[in-house]
Write a structure and sequence with these properties.
By secondary structure, the protein is an all-alpha fold. Helix content is about 70%, strand content about 0%. Keywords: Membrane, Transmembrane, Transmembrane helix.
Length: about 250
């Protein structure tokens, strides 16, 4: 015969959760700790991005003003002396002189300076409303336009310097050592011409970096918008569940 369960062996009825506890216990609410972390991290990254943009804009503005000053000075010297003719001697400037490279460098410097000023004004001017998208757009446009202008001026300068025509750099550097101390000061013009051309190479790199920062700003805002949208949907579902149970 099989073993009969005695009252001592009987485990008793299974534990049943009271109905009131099931009905009136609130479901777990949506946790916002991860959301708060995302927001805090976003604010930190945006502050660092703003500081980087300000620093690069200041560097660009200083470099552009230096280029404009040097290029403008060489053009002024050329215009003041191109018609100079002492005792019917030949002109100090050749007949095949080409000043377009200096004008291109001067124009690129103006474009970079204006763009840098616009970015700095946007970043440093307080506003009651957030202008994140406007700032990202302005940084991207200023960076792209400055990069294009800088690349054109540098490429154009090297092409003209390698041509048969005499440019501000080639002519002044050719006679700078021979006519040192005379007017016009070709040695100084040579230094300023070289400085302007090679400084625009550095400006090109900075402008490309500014363009990348603008693009990264758009990507960061897009990512944060997705996080906020997902958070809002989850919170809405959690609130609806709580209301249904209550």
């Amino acid at each position: 015969m099989g073993h009969l369960l005695t009252p001592i062996d009987w485990p008793g009825p299974p534990a049943v959760t009271p109905l009131s506890q099931v009905m009136f216990s609130a479901p777990p609410r949506f946790s916002t700790s991860s959301v708060d972390f995302e927001e805090a991290d976003y604010l930190v990254r945006r502050a660092r991005q703003r500081q980087a943009r300000i620093a690069v804009s200041i560097l660009l503005l200083g470099s552009a003003l230096a280029v404009v000053g040097c290029s403008g000075n060489t053009l002024v010297v050329y215009k003041n002396t191109k018609n100079f003719n002492l005792y019917s001697l030949p002109s100090i400037w050749p007949s095949n002189f080409d000043d377009r490279s200096v004008k291109a460098t001067l124009g690129a410097g103006v474009v970079v300076a204006v763009g840098s000023i616009a970015v700095l004004v946007s970043l440093l001017t307080p506003s009651p409303r957030q202008r994140v998208n406007l700032q990202n757009t302005l940084v991207s446009v200023a960076g792209a336009s400055g990069a294009i202008a800088s690349i054109f001026s540098v490429a154009y300068g090297f092409v003209l310097n390698a041509s048969q025509a005499e440019t501000m750099m080639t002519w002044s550097c050719k006679w700078g050592d021979l006519l040192n101390g005379l007017r016009p000061d070709f040695q100084r013009i040579c230094t300023e011409s070289r400085f302007s051309l090679y400084m625009m190479i550095a400006v090109t790199v900075l402008e490309l970096g500014m363009t990348i920062m603008g693009s990264l700003g758009f990507l960061m805002e897009k990512k944060m918008a997705v996080v906020r949208s997902t958070t809002a949907k989850r919170k809405s579902i959690s609130d609806e569940t709580v209301e249904a149970v209550a």
